[in-house]
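[retry 2/3] 6028_t:CDS:1: previous attempt timed out, resubmitting with same input.
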Amino acid sequence: DPIGENHVTPAAFGHMTHMLKSLAAGKLVLALEGGYNLDSISNSALACVKVLLGEHPAKLGPIKPSQECVETIYQVIRVQSRYWSCLKPVYIDSTEEKVPGKLVIDIMDMVKLFRTRYLFSKLKMVPAPLAPERLANRFTDL
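[retry 2/3] 6028_t:CDS:1: success.
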């Protein structure tokens, strides 16, 4: 949206809708707000509706976060790490190139790891691998 300057593309709205579908057994309501840029809101709404109808969201291009974004995420992790043992407040400078051997964990992998550890420690549940691989891939968005 060029007016609001949030820099969220229609593809990103599609991805957020896709992630939200895994909650509440897929029951989801989308509400439009704003509307001052009809091209922007219509393209974003279309991306969301396509996902609701079962299409995969459009691919996102490479994303390089701003230094402000990295700083905000670091501050959130620093505070939340007091309550989530799987979060470690390790600061990563977004201007650095990736260094071989430096561990950077995707947030979804971090949440899955926490969920696995929690279910094991509290309920003695262990993950059961799904076979075949094509079936396992259908559950990667949970």
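[retry 2/3] 6028_t:CDS:1: The chain is about 45% helix and 0% strand.
[retry 2/3] clearing retry counter.
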